[in-house]
Amino acid sequence: MSKILMVISGANSLKMADGSIHPTGYWAEEVAASHEVLVADGGDVDLATPGGVRPTVDVLSLDERGGVSEEDARKFRVYLDGIADRLAAPLALAEVRATDYDAIYIPGGHGPMGDLVDDGDLGRLLNEAVAQGKIVVALCHGVGALLSAKTPDGGFTFADRELTAFSDEEERQGGLGDNIPFSVEGRLRERGAHVTPGAPWSSTVIQDANLITGQNPQSSVATARKTLEALAAR
User: How many domains does the chain have?
Assistant: First the structure.
């Protein structure tokens, strides 16, 4: 049985480029659909957040305003209610070690931009995972959380790696637009990653050795399945 750590943002708001505060959190589909696929195959999934805080679901991820149909929103609510006890008591990132897991999985929503991108505990965990050859997975804005991992000389641990992430075009079409605090796609490129987004809203997953990235909520199931394939190949 594979042991997987799902790292979820604990942020419930995001400071925008204009200084306003935007309510946010994790994206329902990315947690619910990913978790469902991972445990259906027998995976043992622990949840963790910065400080062990209970994560907040982004209300837009359960609403047609976020491009989510009423039917899908109902499905995600039911699933999240089914794991409510786990969501209510996640592990604290500072207390977990990569040696206890086969894979680290980071779903998105805009929340990771508010906390995980600069989280020292996550950076330490990701560096441990890389050093130990563990599988690292990130999805949508969760790919931005990889920025927390730095080399001893201040470089980016995942520089020169091939990956995808929520694209600037998707941000313009259905995200927070030009008021976003920073471009996840752009910041990853600045730090030396090779970012190759697929078509907007397409299910796009890229695997580069032990690094797996998914582009957007539509990539949730495919990203989780690719994770299982990578674990099974070990």
Answer: 1
